[in-house]
Amino acid sequence: MEQGKIQTLKIVRIKPVGAYLADPDNMDPETKDAVLLPKKQVPDGSTPGESVEVFLYTDSSDRPVATTAKPYLTVGEVGKLAVTELEKVGTFLDIGLEKDVLLPFKETEGKPQKGDVLLVALTLDKAKRLVATMHVYPYLKTGSPYQKNDAVKATVYEVKENIGAFAAVDNLYFGLIPTSEVYENYSVGQEVEARVMRVREDGKLDLSPRKKSYLQMDEDAEKIFSAIEENDGKLSFTDKADPAFIREKFRMSKNEFKRAVGRLLKEGKIILTDHSIEKK
To answer: N or C: which end of the chain has fewer CB within 10 A?
Structure first.
């Protein structure tokens, strides 16, 4: 019998408080390992020897207990759970059962607030109690069905300045927006729409928030032209501006900026001077 898992057990005895369940391979009615399924959860007409599909966890007194309710997550799964309470020991999350699951402080990223929805994995602590963790990397999978240039949705779960933004694609697969593709300040929990740039040999996904260059160019050109119009028809810099400045102002690389400016020149919408880009 495994904590945090949905499994099929057999009824070994029925008492006024409920039915006691055990591993089908151990049907001794007096087995001390039997776990209680509270009376209100016992199917009507149940008798010893019958099978019941249940989820195992511990109650408020840390005693093993079974439930026929289906939790939002089982051990090893990643998903989003809502914050119900903030306590001294950590944050409690709604897992779909009578008892909420604890997200300990050491397993937390940022400062969750009541009502937030957090991306977490469900695991067991040293005492074999269910807990949640926001450190989901070890629980994500490779071998997604996605190919290069596919559009995906992902949730950021960690940001490292020298590597990029780590994101869970479909809350299931490993994804990374590398620093070269980071055009904004991502935050933990942020949902992003991205394009698969590359499927690595190990099955992990490299992502970009931008479309393929020939599709992105029109959007970039429109963004630049709007900025020119909003600035009285003139930008006081050219396509030779510092790459960091361009990235911060337009969320695009210098090469992407130059391609978009070239598109506007070709369309006759702008003129370039030595020190400015101006509306024609």
So the answer is: C
